[in-house]
Amino acid sequence: METVTSADGTVIAYDRHDGHAGTVILVGGAFGYRKLPTMVELAAALNEQYGLTVLNYDRRGRGDSTAASGGYDVEREIDDLAALVEVAGGSAMLFGWSSGAGLALRAAGSGRILGITKVVAFEPPFIVDDTGFVPAADLEPTLHQLVAADRRAETVRFYMTKAMGIPPTFVTVLRFTPFWKHLLATANSTPHDWAVMGEFVRGEPLRAADWAAVKAQTLVIAGGKSDLLLRKAARAIAAVLPDAEFQEVAKLRHLPKISLLAPPAGEFLTGAAENAN
Length: 277
Description:
Helix content: 40-55%
Number of helices: 12
Structural class: alpha/beta
Number of strands: 8
Radius of gyration: 17 Å
Distance between the termini: 38 Å
Low-confidence stretches: none
Largest sheet: 8 strands, mixed
Strand content: 15-25%
Order of helices and strands: EEEHEHEHEHHHHHHEHEHH
């Protein structure tokens, strides 16, 4: 484990896998952190199979990264990525999963990290119409109250059902799996994910003007077996980004098999797909 200090003093922990084909920073989604088995496996695949240097980090308030006081602000998470890009030598690519993909895109469009060269956005959970699930407008105060009271199990259930639209029965089943401990450990960081995604999950079409500053070449990936909401979101963000392509991967789900997810991501990040053409 290595660490870097962000602009507000938050200590960001990360693991480095050295390679020779450029650097990619992995940005986890809600409940994700660097020791989550999926993140560990993805880091290894991109490093060992594609030669990438991989920085797999804990977003603030998760794992071994510290939690700063003063509320939840997407700009602070962009500061964290800026510090990691500096660690990478001033230039890096981003791979974001779920709300981590939303954070990666917002960082790329912030104008504050000029060294972001490419972005892979795997199923950013935008909600682009009101035909299905849309979170309640008053979700945020309740989420903050649960976190302040350290009611972690309730926070997990609330965020999954009310912010993510996951059926309550599925969340109940999760309580009896080994994965539940990971969810409890990261529950109090979920307001950061809401800060990233909240304004883009209102059931409204994405506006090209909000994403016009994302100059990095972007690959948006969706799974053929993922929920329709996520597949629509992936197509919608790809359509409004200045330089993006969309790829749907058969048999891939939101909780992915890395053997299906790593190839399109690795080929895009290393330029192997372009070279093959």
